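Amino Acid Chain and Its Fold in Token Form
===========================================
Structure side: the spatial fold of the chain, written down as a series of whole-number tokens.
Position: the record begins directly beneath this header, with no further notes in between.
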Amino acid sequence: MSYYPTTIEHKIGFDSVREQLAALCTSAIGRGCAAEMAFSTDFTTIREQLEQTAEMLRILGTDGGFPIGNIHDRRQLLQSLRVPGAFPAESELPGLRASLTAMADIASFFAKVREVDENTGHIRTPYPALDVLARDLFAFPAVAAAIDRIIDRHGEIKDNASAELADIRRSMAATAGSINSAMRRVIANAVREGYIEGDVTPSVRDGRLVIPVSPMYKRKISGIVHDESASGKTVFIEPAEVVEANNRLRELSIEERREIVRILIGLADTIRPDIDELLGGFDLLGLFDFIHAKAQFARSIEATMPHLTERPELEWYHACHPVLRQSLERQGKSIVPLDIRLDRDHRLLVISGPNAGGKSVTLKTVAIVQYMIQCGLLPPVHDNSHAGIFENIFLDIGDDQSIEDDLSTYSSHLRNMKYFLFKGNKRTLVLIDEFGGGTEPQIGGAIAQAVLKEFNKLGMWGVITTHYHNLKQFAEETNGLVNGSMLYDRHLMQPMFKLAIGQPGSSFAIEIARKTGLPESIIEDAREIVGSDYVNMDKYLLDIARDRRYWENKRSDIRLKEKRLEETLARYEEEMETLRGKRREIISEARDEAKRILDNSNATIERTIRDIRTAQADKEKTREARKRLAADREALQAQADNAAAHPLLDKKTPGKKKQTPKAAPKPMADRPLEPGDNVVLADGGGTVGTIESISGKNASVVFGQIRTTVKLDRLKRTIKKAPSGAKAGASYISSQTSDSSRERQLQFSHEIDVRGMRTDEAVQAVMYYIDDAIQFNASRVRILHGTGTGALRQYIRNYLDTVPGVARYHDEDVRFGGPGITVVEF
């Protein structure tokens, strides 16, 4: 098993594919999988990787997509926790928790679609290849719960992570409050005495609160000097009034850290028994991330799953070079796809044609598509393509001359041929560009023919490009070889970049020389030098290529017309069947309407008879009753005529002789009711409504501007249109309100700044803000109102006293703003 040369990925452009896959991965573990992706010859492994990617591609095509989540590589952390007494850093816990959620989500995703046959125990799932991997993923609820108990959603240790920690933090808050009060008093006195400016705020030096003071007043404020500014114009003094409190706060901080370490050690003890399973879970997360990236890349290049066989096989339709395709799409161009077929009787394809006609691109396309398949990547081919597995892929393309190794261009080619002959076998794919080039044409062509003959003896497969006539002739006369040509448009004088297998191609040297503007005299001299036979042979090749292209175009046109004819016929048959279904539905409604008319007429007759009997055969009243009966009969007759006059009730169907439809669509009357259907009440209601939604045996129906819930068995479908506005209603307003609420929740900030506002404006803004905070379940917010005279602060706090959802409020810590900020807890 091998590929040659070692730089094959760079030569064929696969290094760009690897880089794109790494960029599509969301985790470092996935990117590691992309870096470790390697060429394989194991059929089972390749098939599993391709099936996994194909299944993931199907998942990406569904509405829900795949729950890849946030994956963080915490394998090193887990390894370190094997040692008793070790503990994780708080900063690493949110990533570990998010990864556990990703494991649970992926495991749940596949569990929902997995079914187990109770009789046989066999597992049925739409994603069997991925399900095998997902069965080894676990949710680890105990570990997740242990992490949730001690950290909040911001990754900080919770106050209630332990009773001791809660006591310590309460003491710290009380101490910090006393320090803040003392600092305010000291600052107020210093401002009053003129030692400091009025807008001075405390600073922190070495974890202790200090006041910035001018050196000339440093003796005026009793305390400890902790630091001075770089310019020497400011000294930082810790007032004597807060030294003891600061010492106590430092002691409490040390106790807090000691308690947090104890909590984290306990968490590590909980995690330690599951470390091996967790490490396996992280490996699977990285693998799913990589498969997800492969599916995304496959979707971007329209890759599919070909028919895969273990033996060498190459039958591709609409293959293309993925990197070239992306490059052309960025330029607004489209790639010309490649159709190529090699089999046991035609294993070696010799391609000829003009320069810049696409021979090298064809070679690289074959190389990268086969390399992608054997790296487990879906290839950019149609799904009716067939692909096999090769043991070796050998490539000779470009200039490998080396000054250090004393190799010329031709010497490097010969060295490659030697390697191919020594290592090649029946499961080798060899790809050679400009075979035999780089030396004197006659001997170069002879050596190339001899090497090609040996390749054929070894049973090797491959694609070879050349301009040599002897190789074209050899391919025409030798079993196992086949000629191919890159098509060229002689009228437009430009390459078509299409491969035609079966005939050799012309280099179009004379035509290209004439197009580039070479003097005609030189072209004629060249004709005479090579002789008429040589020129005529090229001409014959051109004629053959032209005729072949003509008949291929004819065949394509016929296939296109046949396809259009079949589609038109199928559409007509489907429309005919739809009309038949509507006709049956109209007849059914007409019968129901006739029954209603008959019932009404009977009621009218009975009422008339009753009136006559009541009038005791009074002639005048009898005459009036008969007039009413006649008027009712005429009205009923008009309704019956209208019901019978529908054009679809005409049984005569114009057109061709009736044909048997391929697939009759289900009549509307037979299918179950669905949202969007127009309905009437089955017990005689005439108002038409529209089904908005169905839940179980009940449906929500909109009649005009009224929405009501009705049992399904009381509804009957109708083709009558619902009144205008029936489908509107409160749902639109409700959805608008819901969307607005979601948008505000996404944009909600845990801090509001009302500095600079008038008191009434600020209080109103705070009212709306507190309402949103309670609605969105915020636990804690900050209101920035500034210090000033304190009036705005007092107005806001008076309002907060009236809000039932507010648990408490207090000044922010002096280090973060002090009395200029009110912290509200709910």
Notes: Residues 306 and 383 are 5 Å apart (CA to CA). The longest strand covers residues 480-489. The chain is about 50% helix and 15% strand. The mean pLDDT is 84.
